[in-house]
Amino acid sequence: MSHQIKSLGVNFGFDQIGIADTDLSATSEKYQQWLEQGYHGEMDYMIKHGDTRWQPGKLVERTIRVICFRINYWPDDDAQAELDHPENGYVSRYALGRDYHKLVRKRLQKLASRIEQMIGEYGYRIFCDSAPVLEKPLAQKAGMGWIGKHTNLINHKDGSWFFLGEIYTDLPLPVDTPVTDDHCGSCRRCIDVCPTRAIVAPYVLDARKCISYHTIELKTAIPVEFRKAMGNRIYGCDDCQLVCPWNKFSRQTREIDFLPRNNLNKLNLSDSFQWNRVTFESKTEGSAIRRIGHERWLRNLAVALGNADKSDLVVDALKSREHDSSALVAEHVNWALNQQLDK
Ligand code: B12
Ligand code: SF4
Ligand code: SF4
Questions:
Q1: Ligand nearest, relative to CA of residue 240
Q2: Residues 251-268 pLDDT 10s
Q3: Are the beta carbons of 159 and 190 closer than 8 angstroms?
Q4: Which atom, in ligand 2's list, is nearest to the CA of 205?
Q5: How far is the C-alpha of 200 from the C-alpha of 209, rounded, in Å?
Q6: Among 116, 140, 169, residue at a domain's last position
Q7: Positive or negative CA dihedral for 7, 12, 17, 23?
């Protein structure tokens, strides 16, 4: 049955499928220490749900196995060139195409129903980034890779440009061999390249310092001390993965829905700062970017414009929103104008 499920998974477009048991006791202590340090910042949902996070059987009754899935999203474009182009805004490679939450969940639901057609009724629940699920430790147990010093899961063949999803189930499937080796060795490129020094120790990320957190999760003002370091990153950050030697040989995703839409990989900052709410929603339709909303989009872009090379075009774009009705946007525009004038 596990062979059948795995080949079904491949037919559904997943790049790897592995099976893990539900013993996450090795992770729970580290997770709690991480919370105690306050590294989760304003992500209050990380505190909720108590021990259901490391006891899958408590989250979904009778769960004894977790079928883990991995799907590559690397678009195989010149990400570094985009990052080096200060007039353009850099969007994380994961967010250029269709929102993975929707795509992965829909696909896992279909797959779970197909299994039901094959074997009859069984207990299951699907997840993708959705609930108190320790996706990386589960995938590591399912034999898909190791957690690198940048804290993403790395697969020795495919690097780290992939999403994770799971099916919790009561089926007594045979488990795969966990990856126990750490192939980071003495490398520390991700730690050294991080613009905001967010990887505070190998394998430990302080989310409060991470640009991905600032541009996507944080609902309030971006702390001033991180704004310059943000550069032109307007949605998420890829630097720690771009330098990782394991990503050198990443293959382009097989999923055309993950390829860039609406030129989101070539966004001119001044132009996209003029988008009104309607344009923002239409340009980001179906994309994960839409989740942050127009106001936070403008907040992020204002910071990037402040960091752009000095130009009248940039100053004019900023001035057009100097008195924005959103106090959040207006404050970031003000900061950005001061940056431009200081250059
Ligand atoms: C919260 C969250 C974030 C937060 C915090 C990130 C983090 N590292 O935890 C923020 C907003 C910063 C974030 C950013 C990103 N995220 Co995110 N995120 C999550 C989420 C929802 C939970 C992760 C979690 O539980 N963190 C809590 C801490 C405690 O976990 P941890 O850092 O992994 O720590 C573990 C290990 O490092 C280890 N550990 C800790 N200390 C020590 C010490 C030693 C000595 C050792 C050996 C180990 C060790 O144990 C810890 C507990 O398991 C998951 C989805 C999910 N439900 O799992 C996606 C997820 C991890 N994110 C994902 C992605 C794609 C990203 C970004 C790449 C997006 C982007 N381009 O901007 C960045 C990457 C930033 C980075 N360097 O990690 C993918 C990762 C896929 C992969 N290949 O691993 C996931 C799995 C979503 C998905 N379904 O695909 N994310
Ligand atoms: S995503 Fe960016 S800011 Fe966050 S740890 Fe990686 S390099 Fe640092
Ligand atoms: S850059 Fe080096 S240290 Fe960081 S995750 Fe990749 S191999 Fe590990």
A1: 2
A2: 999 999 999 999 999 999
A3: no
A4: 5
A5: 9
A6: 169
A7: negative
Among residues 316, 291, 314, the alpha carbon closest in space to that of 303 is found at 314
Number of domains the chain contains: 2
What is the span of the domain harbouring residue 270? 189-342
Pair of tokens at residue 137: 């430790």
The yes-or-no verdict on residue 49 having pLDDT over 90 is no
Tokens representing 255 are 């999923």
- Ligand 2, atom 1, lies closest to the CA of 237
Distance in angstroms (rounded) separating the CA atoms of residues 205 and 53: 19
The rounded distance, in Å, linking the Cα atoms of 114 and 306 is 51
158 and 219 fall within a common domain: no
**203 in the same domain as 120:** no
Name beta bridge partners: 267: 89
Q: Is 158 one of the annotated active-site residues of the chain? A: no
The answer to whether the beta carbons of residues 178 and 140 sit under 8 Å apart is: yes
Beta bridge partners of 19: 67
Same domain as 107, residue 27: yes
CB atoms within 10 A of CB 50: 10
Q: Would residue 88 count as lying in a domain?
A: no
Return d(Cα 70, Cα 328) in angstroms, integer. 37
Tokens of 272: 């996209």
Mark whether 201 and 307 lie in a shared domain: yes
Residue tagged active-site, from 21, 77, 129, 170: 129
Q: The pTM is what?
A: 0.97
Tell me: pLDDT of 295 over 90: yes
Assess whether 261 and 319 both reside in one domain. Answer: yes
Ligand 1 centroid from CA 151, angstroms: 6
